[in-house]
Amino acid sequence: MEPPTSSRLNSRKRRKDGSGPNGATELDGTPPKMSRRSFGLKEPAPFSDEVEIDYSKPYVRVTYEEAMRGTPLDRPVRVYADGIFDLFHSGHARALMQAKNLFPNTYLIVGVCSDELTHNFKGFTVMNENERYDAVQHCRYVDEVVRNAPWTLTPEFLAEHRIDFVAHDDIPYSSAGSDDVYKHIKEAGMFAPTQRTEGISTSDIITRIVRDYDVYARRNLQRGYTAKELNVSFINEKKYHLQERVDKVKKRVKDVEEKSKEFVQKVEEKSIDLIQKWEEKSREFIGNFLEMFGPEGALKHMLKEGKGRMLQAISPKQSPSSSPTHDRSPSPSFRWPFSTKTPPSSPANRSRNESAVTYDISEDEED
User: Fold this and answer.
1) Which structural domains are found in the chain, ordered by start?
2) What pLDDT, in 10s, does the model give residues 152-173?
3) Is 18 in contact with 25 (CB distance < 8 Å)?
4) What distance in Å separates the CA atoms of residue 197 and residue 95, rounded to the nearest whole number?
5) Does the keyword Ribonucleoprotein apply (predicted)?
6) Which positions ≥6 away from 307 have C-beta within 8 Å?
7) pLDDT tens digit string along 299-331?
C-alpha cells in the first residue's frame, strides 16, 4: 500500500486549519441550511462481537487514492479510532465525526480501552468501562464498538477487524515506553490524522471540578447527597452549610438592593414626569391668569364697561339747550290735610313764589 503523499496531508491539514472549532469546513462563515428531516439513528452502534464478518472474502486493504475516489457500497473504507473516552464530551464527538468523514464511503470502528488497561497506562477514570462503552455506542458517527481495545495496535488486531486506516490526531502520543504508539501505523501508511478540539478535554473538565471543589461539594450537599458519599469530613460539612446560609443572606441583601434601586429609579422617573407636567400646567395657569388679570386683561375691559354703564345709569345725559322748549303745564296744587299752615318750602320754591299760601307739588316734565 502506498502511503499518502505529504502534499495531500498538508492540503488536508490546511483545510482543517481553516475550518471551525468542530473540524468541519465552513463556507463563507455561514453553514448551509438543510431541510427539516431526521438525521439521527434509532439504535446504538453494535459491539464488534455482535457483528458477523464474512471471512470467505479475502482481506485486501484499499489504498489512500482508492479510498478518496470512493469505494463500492458493499466495500466501505474501514476506519478505526481508539481512545479512553472518559466523560464523553463534544471534543470526542467531533474527532469521531472527522474520522467518519475522512472518505466518501466510511465504516467507523471505535475501540474503547478497559478500566484495567487504562488505570495501568494512563490513570484513574471517572466513568467505568461499561459507562464509557455505552457513551460511545450512542454517538451518531459510530458504526461499531470494540470493547477492551488494545493499547498498542498489532498486525493481528488490524487483520482481525479488517482495518484500512487508523484515525487519530497527529500529535505524538507517548505511552507504554514508546515515544509514539502510532509510529508503526504512520510508517505503514495507514494513519489518517484528525484535528484536536482545543479548549475541551477530559483533563480540562476534571481540572474545573478540582478547582471548584468546594462549590460542587456544597451543591451536591444541597441536592441531598450525604457527606460520606462526597467523602467530606464533619467539619467541612458544617462549614459548607454555614457558607450556604451566608450566601443566601448575601443573595437576599443583593435582591433587596436591586429592588430598592429599581424603586428609586421608578420614583425618579415619576418625579421627572410630575415636574414636566407641573411646568406645563404652570405655564398654562400663568398665561390664563395674565390673560384675565393682566394690564390689558379681560377683567380690565369688563371693569371699564361696567363703570361706563354705572355712570350712564347714575347721571343720564341732559337735553341739549338748542332743543325747543315745551310749555310747562301748571302743576296741580296739593294742600296738606288737617293743616292750616303752609309747610315750609324749599328755597327754590320760596324764590318762585314767596307769597304763596298753599304748597304746590309739581311733577317734572319728562324729556
Assistant:
1) 48-188 (3.40.50.620), 202-257+267-305 (no CATH)
2) 999 999 999 999 999 999 888 8
3) yes
4) 8
5) no
6) none
7) 777 777 777 777 777 776 665 555 555 555 555
